[in-house]
């Protein structure tokens, strides 16, 4: 029986246990993406779907990208399209809206669509892009639960297109340096990870506080960085989670929108992680990794940078390059050159985080320790 079917069976049969499908991604030998030869200079021609705040940042970042270029727009707001068309010299034939973008299948000038819309829209939009035969780059969280994420992975597999998740930290130089040091044993045996991820959210009417569009609160939006970080910093996949929720403002953070969740994860080697996800505290962007021989601390650890920190060997001072520029260059190499990134960014990687988020929500609800695997 294949692993996919086993996953589906386990997912439907289990009351408390939640399965993480697929093998851990960290079993590959270490080889930094920058050290691998570039096999082509082919430029990835990208259409952005959702011309919002983060879409604007990605578009700006692509101006400095050598391997990715903004060539198309998908938007529900014609006035934005007019401005972007002018700014980025996008031809009319590469502009679409949410009703007609399936026609992108007949457009040979677009290779990939970067989905940068509210979380709950990612699944349907990504699947439509895949069915149109284009590669999908999708923002985090890739979906609003693991079942949806799995549908996206399957749809992209079926369509024969790549599915990559916008995990920009997976290409960030200081992050990669810490991961390399950990793999080289420079911190000894890893024992503990702490991840603090949060900010004070403003406007109560925004989609992030509407469960129908966000699929959850701080956990989906910012807590996911601590989950994902715990996995790449320790190099292990969690086998259990516990979690506790605190809600101080039930009007702003209505049912389905988590305000603050503390959560703990246990890993096969005995490593433990202790994390905080919140929409109610500022200046929370910190990772701490502790081993028997050393440590790494990063603050900020996942913001737009520069990422700062130190290890027991000294400061983390790799040069800062706009994260999204590096990400888009490297994603072009993944798509066209078959390069394997040091820390995966594919749909299966995103799915692992969604399985953990499902488990955290279950742990909050039941008060139980939830097993994974
Ligand atoms: P914004 O609200 O700024 O932009 C979202 C855009 O999606 C809108 O401007 C709109 O563009 C489009 N959209 C389509 N349908 C809707 C709808 N029903 N309601 C609201 N907007 C809609 O959000 P962000 O850009 O901040 O976030 C978008 C995604 O990017 C999220 O998944 C988020 O988690 C992710 N993100 C990732 C970050 C990272 O560092 N990797 C950082 C910030 C966000 P249009 O008018 O063109 O249709």
Keywords:
373 residues; nine-stranded mixed beta sheet; six-stranded parallel beta sheet; 10 helices; 33% helix; binds NADPH dihydro-nicotinamide-adenine-dinucleotide phosphate
Q: Please, could you describe this protein's structure?
A:
- With 373 residues, the protein is an alpha/beta fold.
- 33% of the residues lie in helices and 20% in strands.
- The chain contains ten helices and 15 strands.
- The strands form two sheets. A nine-stranded mixed beta sheet has the order 14-13-12-11-7-10-9-8-15.
- Helix 4 links the parallel strand 4 and strand 5.
- Helix 5 runs antiparallel to helix 10.
- The longest helix is centred in the last third of the chain and has 20 residues.
- The chain is globular.
- The N terminus is likely disordered.
- The site of NADPH dihydro-nicotinamide-adenine-dinucleotide phosphate has 22 residues, from helix 2.
Percentage of residues in helical conformation: 25-40%
Largest sheet: 9 strands, mixed
Query: Given the structure, what is the number of helices?
Result: 10
Strand percentage lies at 15-25%
**What ligands does this structure carry?**
NADPH dihydro-nicotinamide-adenine-dinucleotide phosphate
- The helix-and-strand class reads alpha/beta
Number of E strands: 15
Q: What integer is the average pLDDT?
A: 92
The termini sit apart by: 17 Å
Low-confidence stretches: 1-32
Strand order of the largest sheet: 14-13-12-11-7-10-9-8-15
Give the radius of gyration.
Answer: 20 Å
Q: What is the global morphology?
A: globular
What is the chain-wise order of helices and strands?
A: HEHEHEEHEHEHEHHEEEEEEEHHE
């Amino acid at each position: 029986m294949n692993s996919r079917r086993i996953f589906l069976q386990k997912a439907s049969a289990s009351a408390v246990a939640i399965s993480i499908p697929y093998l851990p991604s960290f079993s590959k030998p270490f080889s930094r993406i920058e050290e691998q030869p570039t096999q082509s200079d082919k430029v990835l021609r990208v259409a952005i779907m959702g011309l919002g705040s983060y879409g604007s940042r990605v578009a700006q970042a692509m101006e400095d990208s050598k391997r990715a270029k903004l060539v198309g727009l998908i938007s529900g707001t014609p006035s934005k399209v007019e401005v972007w068309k002018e700014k980025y010299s996008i031809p009319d034939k590469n502009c679409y809206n949410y009703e007609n973008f399936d026609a992108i299948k007949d457009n040979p000038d677009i290779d990939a669509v970067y989905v940068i819309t509210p979380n709950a829209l990612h699944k349907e939009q990504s699947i439509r892009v895949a069915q149109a035969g284009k590669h999908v780059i999708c923002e985090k969280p890739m979906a609003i639960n693991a079942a949806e994420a799995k549908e996206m992975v399957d749809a992209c597999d079926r369509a024969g297109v790549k599915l990559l998740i916008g995990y920009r930290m997976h290409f960030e130089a200081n992050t990669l340096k810490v991961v390399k040091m950990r793999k080289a044993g420079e911190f000894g045996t890893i024992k503990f990870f702490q991840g603090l991820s949060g900010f004070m959210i403003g406007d109560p009417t925004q989609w992030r506080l509407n469960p129908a569009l966000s699929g959850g609160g701080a956990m989906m939006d910012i807590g996911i960085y601590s989950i994902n970080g715990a996995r790449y910093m320790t190099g292990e996949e969690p086998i259990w989670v516990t979690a506790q929720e605190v809600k101080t403002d039930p009007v702003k953070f209505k049912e389905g929108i988590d305000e603050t969740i503390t959560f703990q994860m246990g890993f096969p080697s005995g490593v433990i992680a202790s994390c905080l996800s919140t929409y109610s505290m500022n200046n929370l962007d910190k990772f701490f990794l502790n081993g028997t021989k050393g440590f790494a601390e990063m603050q900020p650890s996942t913001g737009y940078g520069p990422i700062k920190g130190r290890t027991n060997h000294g400061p983390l001072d790799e040069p800062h390059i706009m994260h999204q520029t590096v990400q888009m260059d490297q994603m072009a190499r993944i798509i066209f050159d078959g390069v394997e990134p040091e820390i995966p960014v594919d749909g299966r990687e995103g799915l692992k985080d969604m399985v953990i988020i499902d488990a955290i929500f279950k742990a909050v609800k039941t008060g139980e320790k939830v097993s994974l695997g």
